[in-house]
Design brief:
Blueprint: H1 3-27, H2 36-49, H3 54-59, H4 66-74, H5 79-89
Length: 92
């Protein structure tokens, strides 16, 4: 498979995955647009909020530098909002 074909296959896979993630999100009452990008960072938030070490979480989204994970973990959401999202996303 050529590099161009590989790229097209990966892009189609991500597009299809995002479509299904959004269907699932709507079924559980989430109205925001959800993507694989959002999902991987949400996973990191949930893991950190449940006491997983930042070193372990840093490997999950593929961050090469732990500072990147720390920046994501400490920006954009306050702890109460993170906790609320974690509870919603793990309540099934």
């Amino acid at each position: 498979m050529s590099l161009l074909t590989q790229r097209k296959v990966i892009q189609q896979f991500i597009k299809t995955t995002n479509k299904w993630i959004n269907r699932i999100a709507k079924n559980v009452g989430i109205t925001k647009n959800i993507t694989t990008y959002v999902a991987r960072h949400t996973f990191s938030y949930i893991m950190l909020n449940n006491g997983t070490s930042i070193e372990l979480v840093s490997n999950s989204p593929g961050h090469s530098d732990i500072k990147t994970t720390h920046n994501y973990a400490s920006s954009g959401f306050n702890n109460e909002l993170k906790k609320k999202f974690s509870e919603i996303l793990t309540s099934f």
